[in-house]
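Let's practice the habit of predicting before peeking. Look at the sequence and jot down your guess about where helices and strands might fall. Then scroll down.
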Amino acid sequence: MKQQLPGAEIHYLTKPQFKDLVANNPYVSRVHVLDDNFGQMTAKLKAEQFDHIIDLHHNLRTLRLQLALQKKFNRFDKLNFKKWLLVNFKVNVLPQVHIVERYLKTVQFLGVQNDGEGLDYFIPAKDELTTLDGFSLLQPYVAFVIGATHFTKRMPKEKIISLCGKINMPVVLIGGKAERADGEAIASAAGNQVHNTCGQLNLNQSAWVVKQAAYVISHDTGLMHIAAAFKKPVVSLWGNTVPQFGMYPYYGNHQVKNLMSEVTDLKCRPCSKIGSSQCPQTHFDCMKKQNEETILRFIQR
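Done guessing? Here is the structure:
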C-alpha cells in the first residue's frame, strides 16, 4: 500500500504483545495498540480521521470498533464455514489461494496489487547478533523453532531429539520462556551440535537467528512466516492443521525450495483450524509419524 499509494499514511492497530512485529516497519507511519479502555482507545482513533479501515480480523471486537468509528471498513472474509466443513467433514471447498493473497483483496479497491516480493520483516540493528554463548552465527546451521501455541502443533520432544541428533550440521533451538526446559532437555540429549536459545532471546533476536540460518525447521507458527520473509528454505511441520488453510510459507514470486512435512494418510486431519491442548484421538500420529528421513534428505542434500 505504501509503495503504490503516493502520500498514503498507514497506521496499524494490534495487541500490545504484537507491537514489536511492526514497530520497525518503515511502511507503517504509526502503531496503535488495543486498550482495555475501549472508549479511550476509540477516542484516540477517531482523532486520526482515517479515510479507510482495513479489517483483517473480522471479529466482534473489530465490529464494535467499526460501529464506534463510523468509517468505511473493508473486511476480510475468513471463510470460517468452509474451514468448518474441512475440520468436521473433511470436505475441502477452500480456494487454493494463500491467505496473504486473500488479505490483499481487501485493498484492491484502492488499486493496490500484489508486487510478488513476498513478506517483509524488519529487525533493528540492536538485535543483530554474531555469537550466542560462544557459538558463531557466521557458520552454516539449522534453526529449529520448537515452540507453538497449541500442543497439537508441536512435534513431541523425543521426536525432536531424534531428528536433531541426525542432522549433520549445528542446530540452534529457538523458543520462548515456555520452551526453556524442553530446549535444555533436547540440547542435552541430542548432542553437542545442538545449541539451546529458548527463553534467552527476544522476538527480533530470534528472527535474526532465523535470518542467518542455512535452513529453518518450524511448526505452523509465526517464526515460520518470518523465515519465509527472509526467503529461507523452510521445513514446516504440520500436525493437526493443514497447509490447505492457506497459511504455509509464502515467498511471493520467488522460487525457494521448501518442504511441507505432514502425515497425509490420516483421516482425522485436520482436527482443528488452530490447534488444541491434546490429540482428540489420543494417538497423535500426525506428529509421531512424521518422516524424519524425508526431512533429513531435504536438509542434507
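How did you do? Residues 11-110 form one domain.
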